[in-house]
Amino acid sequence: MIIALDGPAASGKGTLGKRLAAHFGLRYLDTGLLYRAVAKALLDAGDPLDDGARAVAAARRLDPARFDERGLKDHAVGEAASIVSAIPEVRNALLAFQRAFAAAPPGAVLDGRDIGTVIAPDAGVKIFVVAEPRVRARRRAAELKAAGQPADDAAILADILRRDDRDRTRAVAPLKAADDAIELDTSKLDIEAAVAAAIGIVERAARRR
User: Fold this and answer.
1) Domain 2-208 top-level CATH class
2) pTM of the prediction?
3) Which of the residues 15, 81, 176, 195 could staple to 39 if both were Cys, CB 3.0 to 4.6 A apart?
């Protein structure tokens, strides 16, 4: 079984992805970390974020087993990843890895922006996770504060809105719900309620199959 989770930043899909994978005994991949890792490599090297050739080279050197997830979750890296992920050549370089991960048994949960539309269009379950921008900003601020990083709610909200616009308007693999995706709005749900709702969506899809 392949479960595709798509949605904008801080909608809750990452936490849902981990919990769904554990519940159903599947592997989990946060595809956003791939783009964050490419962005961090460019930042660390002092290379321009829009340098396609260097970004592709960084993408081909990635080793997800060695990712420092905490470092990759840094706010500046996330902002840079939104820019890097709009480079078509980078997306192509990471496409095969993501598809191979999804196809390997016993199945997987992948979260990102284009899982249901591009990476795994034949996924058995597609969930499009959404939440109101202000709710997402509060969540991201809380996440940063918990990690000991500074967090300005207004700045984070502005950043989320900019990222939403970039993700939805980019020419390649824009953020959008697949035609057969089920929307899950987590704005008013705590994590346990959101997980329960997502499990229900998966189980209903499994019964239909």
Assistant:
1) alpha beta
2) 0.86
3) 81
